């Protein structure tokens, strides 16, 4: 989903006229649904092949495919479009207003790279047969920290401009996404 959000946000900044006039109205919902469906399919296959009817070869192949899809396709695309968006906004002579949503996306991508990517890389290398001095528990803790940071990012970005701390969580989310 971070990859899809990064691509969509980048296209809306680089090609705003095309996005307003030619982009299908429900494209975001369709892409999100397809991504959730793909995730459900891969996780269901993983559950069946690795738990219900264990097949070492099929399970290993599926997990390598998921790791490669994550690390070799989604992460580079997310980085490419996020970096393009960042450079376009920061280096523009038009001084585009960055806004809260831009801040939320950049912080989310940054923390994803710091906390979630190492787990994906190490799991992929582990399934390819490369062993490192690594504890899976550390990777899972980092991944949990990444997931836990997202609501905090939304809250802090949503309440940043007003120094009062008496905001509700709903108001913070509303402000974070008002762009």
UniProtKB/TrEMBL annotation:
The protein's location, in the record's own words, is: Membrane
User: What SUPFAM superfamilies has UniProt attached to this entry?
Assistant: Family A G protein-coupled receptor-like
Q: Where are the transmembrane segments?
A: 27-49, 61-89, 101-125, 137-157
List the membrane topology term(s): Multi-pass membrane protein
In this chain the G-protein coupled receptors family 1 profile domain maps to 1-154
Q: Name one GO molecular function term.
A: G protein-coupled receptor activity
Q: Which superkingdom, per the lineage?
A: Eukaryota
A GO cellular component entry from the record: plasma membrane
Keywords carried by this UniProt record: G-protein coupled receptor, Membrane, Receptor, Transducer, Transmembrane, Transmembrane helix
Database matches in PANTHER family: G-PROTEIN COUPLED RECEPTORS FAMILY 1 PROFILE DOMAIN-CONTAINING PROTEIN-RELATED (PTHR11334:SF68), MAS-RELATED G-PROTEIN COUPLED RECEPTOR (PTHR11334)
- Name of this chain's protein: Proto-oncogene Mas
> What organism is listed for this UniProt entry?
Aptenodytes forsteri (Emperor penguin)
């Amino acid at each position: 989903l971070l990859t899809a959000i990064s691509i969509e946000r980048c296209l809306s900044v680089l090609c705003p006229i095309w996005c307003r006039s030619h982009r299908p109205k429900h494209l975001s919902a369709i892409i999100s649904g397809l991504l959730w469906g793909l995730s459900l399919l891969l996780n269901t296959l993983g559950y069946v092949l690795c738990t219900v009817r264990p097949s070492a070869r099929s399970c290993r192949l599926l997990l390598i495919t998921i790791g490669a899809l994550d690390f070799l396709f989604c992460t580079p695309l997310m980085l490419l479009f996020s970096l393009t968006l960042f450079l376009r906004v920061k280096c523009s002579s038009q001084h585009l207003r960055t806004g809260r949503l831009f801040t939320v996306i950049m912080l989310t991508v940054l923390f994803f790279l710091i906390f979630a990517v190492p787990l994906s890389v190490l799991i992929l290398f582990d399934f390819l047969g490369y062993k490192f001095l690594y504890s899976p528990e550390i990777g899972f803790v980092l991944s949990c920290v990444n997931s836990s940071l997202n609501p905090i990012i939304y809250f802090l970005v949503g309440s940043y401009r007003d120094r009062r701390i008496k905001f509700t969580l709903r108001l913070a989310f509303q402000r974070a996404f008002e762009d």
